[in-house]
Amino acid sequence: MDSPIKVLIVEDETIIAARISLELNDLGYEVTGIVTRAEQALAHCEHSPPDIALLDVSLKGKMDGIELAFILNEKSNIPIVFLTANSDEATFNRAKKALPAAFLTKPYKKIDLQRTLELVASRLSAKTQKEEVIKNSESSYILSDRIFVRYKNRMVKVVIEDILYVVADGNYCLVTTMDKEYILTVTLKTLEESLPSDHFVRTHRSYVVNLNRINSLDDNQEYLTFSEGKSVPVSRRFKQDVLNRLKLF
User: Fold this and answer.
1) Residue 134 within a domain
2) Count of structural domains, the chain
3) Beta bridge partners of 154
4) Which of 24, 35, 31, 22 is nearest to 72 (CA)?
5) What stretches of the chain show up as alpha helix (H) in DSSP?
6) What angle (nearest 5°) sits at the alpha carbon of residue 216, between those of residues 213 and 221?
7) Interval 53-59 mean pLDDT
C-alpha cells in the first residue's frame, strides 16, 4: 500500500511553520509534527520517525539546526532539508558538512518547496536508504523497507514487500503492487540495485520479481504467477538462477 510521505517541520517562527504545514498538506504530504526546538525534534524522530525533516538552520535554544542535523545523521537515516534565510558563507559551509539532502532559502515560493521535496524523494527512490541491520541469535538480516514514487501528481512511499514485480520501460520502471501501478523515473538496473537481493530476482531482461509474492511456476517453467492473477515471463538466460532461488522456499 502507498501512503503519504511524512515530513517533520522544525521551525521556531510559528507563522512560517504554519504556512509550510498548510502547503505540505496541500501537496499531499503528511506533517508528523511542528516543533520549535532541537530537543523536541530529537524526541519526535525517536518515537515517530519522519521520511524527511525540514530543519531551520537558525533555531533558538541550546542547539541550532546544524547541530541537530549532525545528531540526526548519527542516530538515523532521515534525509534533511535545511531552511535558511542566512546567506552567510561561514554558516553555509558549516551546514554543508552536515550533508543535507537540499537547501530551501527563505522566503520561498510554494513551487520551490514542492520541487525541493520531490527532488529528495526522487533521490531516495533511486537508491537504497541506509541499511538497517537487525541481528538475532541465528543470523543477520538487512532490510530496506520502502521506495518513493510518483502517483496521481504526488510523491508517495510504497512498502517494498508489497511490490509484486517491476517492468522496464526504457529509462522508466513500472512498479506493480497488488492493486496499483507506479511509474518510476529510473532504469531497471538502478532500481534492482536498490532492492534487497535476498527477496528480488531478475527473471527476464525486463522483469524483476519479488520472490515472496510468487504463487506458482508453470509446467514449462516459462512463467511465474502471483495470487493476484498476474504473471511474468522467465527467459532462458535467467531460468536457472530463478530455479535455484525458488528452491530456497
Assistant:
1) no
2) 2
3) 151
4) 35
5) 14-26, 38-47, 65-75, 89-96, 110-125, 188-194, 236-246
6) 120
7) 93
Band of residue 1 on the pLDDT scale cut at 50, 70, 90: low
Q: What is the pLDDT of residues 142-172, one digit of tens each?
A: 335 777 777 766 777 888 889 999 999 877 8
Q: Are 155 and 28 in contact (CB under 8 A)?
A: yes
148 and 121 both lie in a single domain? no
Q: Is pLDDT at 181 greater than 90 in this prediction?
A: no
Q: Which domain holds residue 111?
A: 2-125
Residue where a domain stops, chosen among 98, 125, 152? 125
213: left (phi > 0), else alpha (psi -120 to 50), else beta?
Answer: alpha
Scan for cell 533555531, then name that residue: 59
Most confident of 1-15, 26-40, 135-149, 162-176: 26-40
Residue 7: inside a domain: yes
| Antiparallel, parallel or unpaired: β 223-226 and 214-217 | antiparallel
> From the CB of residue 99, how many other CB atoms can be counted at a distance below 10 Å?
11
Q: What is the CATH number of the domain that holds 201?
A: 2.40.50.1020
